[in-house]
From TrEMBL:
<protein>
    <submittedName>
        <fullName>Glycosyltransferase</fullName>
        <ecNumber>2.4.-.-</ecNumber>
    </submittedName>
</protein>
<dbReference type="GO" id="GO:0016757">
    <property type="term" value="F:glycosyltransferase activity"/>
</dbReference>
<keyword id="KW-0808">Transferase</keyword>
<dbReference type="Pfam" id="PF13692">
    <property type="entry name" value="Glyco_trans_1_4"/>
</dbReference>
<keyword id="KW-0328">Glycosyltransferase</keyword>
<feature type="region of interest" description="Disordered">
    <location>
        <begin position="1"/>
        <end position="22"/>
    </location>
</feature>
Length: 430
């Protein structure tokens, strides 16, 4: 099937409904679903978008993807657009589109007002106003039919609402955590003008954007409970994300940390380097992912001191997990479910983790035989030394590991497909 990879050109196959009647295996045959999501890649959220596209297609639907840039000037054909497409080929849709805010719109009065708020750390305000000003590609705006919009992140709702108004369809919103918490955490160490935006004022913007959705989907237990209290008049559902499984073959001799360049990951890896590693200095650790970019900005001295540990973005994730003797999850802060923890669980490898790495899972990691939990640096280092001392022990069958079994039950594609199909069915029946 031909695909549009973001140039905005019409794709007839993607916008014309499929022929044929729905079946039990393909209940959405003949329907078109639009995924609206930030133009992000190489992160946990992107893996959720990938799984959504795969799931809807497996249910028989045509899938359109609209990637929304979150920075002014990141428009069709821009460097950001090209970079996004190059790094997101795993998101398989019948047609892919890209939308961004033209640079000239920075003079818009509402955007200037939000920019002033952003100087005080109000990320919610600037993201919503940016999305209000994105240019929806003509080929998507003129699509003859969209039956359902599945939006991701509250600040993408302005784009979803514009397309909902044209097509008269329902909108589902995947909240991806209570974002005002993340912004408040970011402001603790970030540069802002005083007075710093409060959690409450950012939360108010977030909740206002969410009210337009017909169903709110939440990725973890804590998030679901919080939003049910904050928006009691809305419909809510707990939907654990599907995360692609990695290889569960017997591992090698590497101790690895995999982390993308977000602030919570930076805090965890910085804690590991400053407090854990000095207690286990002879154990070689590999830090994989684009987290080095966060250290270049936030802790260049720490990056320089441990430069040989940072290996950059992973091209072959399965190979990285296959070579791992153990996976380290030094999570100290952050909100929302940890996609990298789910990914690590699927490998069946031994995990050395803080309890916070399993937040919102509805599981007790202390019950998993292949997980060593440590709540402080000394305990984490001790677990790392024990794992290093047992490198020559006969390897366990990772396909039968406790974490792999829990992954299959809760976070596998099959579990997600069944749950999502049940949640969207009423919208198509009506």
């Amino acid at each position: 099937m031909d695909q549009d990879h973001g140039d905005g050109a019409p794709v007839d196959e993607a916008t014309e409904p499929s022929s044929g009647a729905p079946s039990a295996d393909l209940p959405l045959l003949g329907k078109t679903v639009l995924l609206v999501h930030p133009a992000w890649h190489s992160c946990g959220s992107h893996q959720v978008f990938v799984s959504q596209a795969r799931t809807y297609r497996s249910l028989g639907a045509k899938v359109l993807s609209l990637a929304v840039a979150d920075a002014p000037g990141a428009t069709l054909g821009s460097r950001q657009h090209r970079s996004y497409l190059a790094a997101s080929a795993d998101l398989e849709a019948d047609a892919r589109f890209f939308a961004g805010m033209p640079l000239r719109q920075v003079l818009n009065a509402d955007f200037l007002r939000a920019a002033r708020q952003w100087l005080h750390g109000n990320f919610a305000a600037i993201l919503v106003e940016t999305t209000k000003l994105v240019q929806i590609p003509d080929a998507l705006a003129s699509s003859p039919r969209i039956d359902l919009i599945h939006c991701n992140h509250f600040f993408c709702m302005p784009a979803a609402r514009r397309l909902r108004d044209k097509h008269g369809c329902s909108v589902l919103l995947d909240t991806h955590d209570l974002q005002a918490r993340q912004y408040a955490l970011r402001n603790e160490a970030g540069w802002t003008l005083a007075p710093v935006a409060s959690f409450e004022e950012m939360l108010a913007i977030e909740l206002d954007a969410m009210r337009a959705a017909d169903l709110l989907l939440h990725l973890n237990d804590e998030e679901a409970a919080a939003f049910q209290k904050l928006l009691p008049g809305k419909r809510h559902a707990l939907l654990y994300p599907a995360v692609p499984a990695v290889s569960a073959e017997s591992g090698g001799r590497d101790f690895i940390i995999i982390a993308s360049a977000n602030y919570a990951n930076f805090l965890g890896v910085a804690w590991f380097l400053r407090e854990v590693l000095p207690l286990a200095p002879d154990i070689p650790v590999k830090i994989l992912g684009n987290i080095d970019g966060a250290f270049k900005f936030r802790a260049p001295d720490l990056l320089k001191r441990h430069a040989k540990l940072f290996r950059g973005r992973v091209k072959d994730l399965d190979a990285a997990y296959r070579s791992a003797a153990a996976i380290l999850l030094p999570t100290t802060q952050g909100h929302g479910i940890s996609i990298k923890t789910i990914e690590a669980m699927s490998s069946g490898a031994p995990l050395i983790a803080t309890p916070h790495a399993f937040r919102g899972f509805g599981l007790d990691p202390a019950e998993f035989a292949n997980v060593a939990l440590a709540s402080d640096a000394a305990g984490f280092a001790a677990a790392l030394r024990r794992a290093a001392a047992s490198l020559d022990a006969p390897p366990a069958d990772r396909r039968r590991a406790d974490t792999r079994s829990a992954y299959d039950r809760r976070f596998s594609f099959e579990a997600y497909r069944k749950a999502l199909a049940g949640l969207v069915a009423p919208f198509f029946e009506s």
